[in-house]
Each structure stands twice: as C-alpha cells, then as structure tokens.
Amino acid sequence: MYKNILLEKSEGIGYITINRPKVLNALNKETMIELRDVVHEIGTDKDIKVVIVTGSGTKAFAAGADISEMHGMTALEGREWGKFSQKVFSDIENLSQPVIAAVNGYALGGGCELAMSCDIRIASENAKFGQPEVLLGVIPGFAGTQRLPRLVGKGKAKELLFTGEQIDAHEAYRISLVNKVVPHEELLSVAKAMAQKIQSCAPIAVQLCKVAVNEGLDTDLDTGVAYEAEVFGLCFATNDQKEGMSAFVEKRKAQFVGK
Ligand code: HXC
Question: What residue's CA is closest to ligand 1, atom 6?
C-alpha cells in the first residue's frame, strides 16, 4: 500500500519501517508524505496500542533527509520542506499511542530528528547518531535544534550541532539521547518486550502520562503541575482506575479495558 514504508500490525503493535535501504532509508518527500499518512492511519486505529519505528536493513535507521532531492531547492522550497516535515514529526510526538524508536544503524540529520520525535529510543550497538547538517551548509530543519537540547541539554546539543560529529550508541546512552543500548540482533525483541510491558498497563493512563509530559515540559513548572492535577483527576472518570485500585485491594491482577 505504501511504497517507501512498511506498515505491519501485530498483537496490538504497529511497526513502521522506513524502507529505502539502498539509500540508507534517506527521507525524501514521497517517504515523508507516506509517513504522515501512516501516522494518521495508526492514530485512528483503536487496535494499535504501541508503535515501533525502525529502518529497513542492517545499516541505517535513516541517514537523514534525502540530500539528492534537497540540493537544488530554493530558500522558499527549503522552508516549506522543513515546515511540512516538522509537522509530520510533531504528529508522531503527539500520537495518542506511545512510540518507540528501534534505532538499527545510522540515525543522522533527519533520521536523528525522527528518532527524537519518538517517546523512547532503543539503540542497537551499531547505531550512530548525529546532526551533520553544518557539514552540508544548513542547519537541522526537522526540529533538531529544538528537540536535541531538550533531551541532552544545551551545551552537549550545541557541541553536536556545531561540529556535526557522529556519536556511537554508548555515547548516545551516556548523554541520555537513548534509553538503552542492546545487541543488534536483540533490538526488535527488546522493543517488542517494552511495547508489551506498556500494553499491560492501563491504556488511558499511559496516554495521559504522555500528554502530561508533552504539555508540561513546554511550559513552566507551576503550569505543568496544575495541568497534571487536571489530568490526574480525569483518570478517576475511567473504569480502569476503578479496576486497577480494586484489583490491588483484592490482591488480583487488574484487567484493563481502556475505558
Ligand atoms: C541521499 C543518501 C543519504 C542521504 C546515504 N545516501 N545518505 N542519499 N540522502 N541523506 C546514499 C548514498 O548516496 C549512497 O547511494 C547510499 O546511500 C549508501 O551510502 P554510502 O555513503 O555509500 O555509505 P557509507 O560509505 O557506508 O556511508 C554512510 C553514511 C553516508 C556515513 C551514512 O552515507 C552519509 O554521510 N550520508 C549522509 C548523512 C547526512 O549528511 N545526513 C543529513 C542529511 S541533511 P549510492 O547511489 O551512491 O549507492 C538532513 C537535514 C534535515 O537530514 C532537515 C532538512 C529540512
């Protein structure tokens, strides 16, 4: 159905695989349009509880925006390309389901920005991260200048942005760019295990955690804390809150239904 993206749905998990391995899964316009459509499809699919994003092949998650397509762009075209893709990545960040990036190789430029738009990043030992845009005469245009400092802090982000240098998975873990590093062959099974663990929790509560973190971090602490109180209160309108707390009191396993 999609040309450059594989979409698989299995056991409540939606697997999005960027599938242009010959060019290291470079993100061209066609792929970004498909990614937008896939994200929309998944966002409205009630059977999908968690999403895993990865890249095809063993070498790359995504080696960035497609340079061969960008090199002839005018300033206005560049601006539109950036704005369009920023929106696709915001849609990923704001998907109601949790999104795990399973980073299987190079995550450079737009590839690193794609991983950063996901909620959680798991890296294979051979993953490499970087924002090499300054080596091409541009800056990150898919929100890398904004998400990277939010994840790793201003100083480290500026170092990576100013030098364009690549870091390996262990360094990415050390600076909190990724949540964990695993052997390459275990990447998808570890991502799936995490997805299953998330799935065993109350779905609306998980969704509201995501909303509270995303909304709260973009504001000051007092506003974020007040927002949390509202969202916390909302949980008490769900059956899952009654089930979760009753199950604890009755010393049994909770059966959450997402209502
Ligand atoms: C288009 C790409 C590509 C890219 C790799 N390829 N990255 N094509 N856009 N971003 C293609 C190569 O041209 C080559 O095609 C094939 O993939 C294999 O790549 P090689 O370079 O031969 O592989 P290797 O020597 O192993 O080097 C891997 C690499 C290198 C280090 C990842 O490919 C690389 O530096 N790629 C560019 C990384 C980058 O600068 N990304 C940021 C892009 S800018 P052929 O046809 O020769 O086999 C960006 C900005 C986002 O993302 C914001 C925009 C608004």
Answer: 23
Each domain of the chain, given as residue ranges in start order, spans: 5-199, 203-249
pTM, two decimal places: 0.97
**Ligand 1 pocket mutation pick from 22, 24, 76, 167 by most atoms within 8 angstroms of CB:** 24
* Full strand arrangement of the beta sheet holding 99-103: 5-10, 13-18, 50-55, 99-103, 120-124, 180-182
- The strand pair at 60-62 and 106-108 is best described as parallel
| Residue having the nearest C-alpha atom to atom 22 of ligand 1 | 23
Which atom from ligand 1 is nearest to the alpha carbon of 111? 52
Catalytic residues: 113, 133
SS (H, E, C) 94-125: CCCCCEEEEECCEEECHHHHHHHHCCEEEEEC
Give CA 162 to chain center in angstroms. Answer: 24
Q: Tell me, which fold does domain 5-199 have in CATH? A: 2-enoyl-CoA Hydratase; Chain A, domain 1 (3.90.226)
Report the separation in Å between the CA atom of 121 and the middle of ligand 1, taken as the mean of its atom positions. 21
Low-confidence ranges of the chain (pLDDT < 70): none
Separation between Cα atoms, residue 170 and residue 178, nearest integer Å: 9
List, as own/partner pairs, every contact residues 75-79 make where C-beta atoms lie below 8 angstroms and the sequence separation is at least 24, other chains included. Answer: 78/138, 78/141
- pLDDT given at position 28: 98
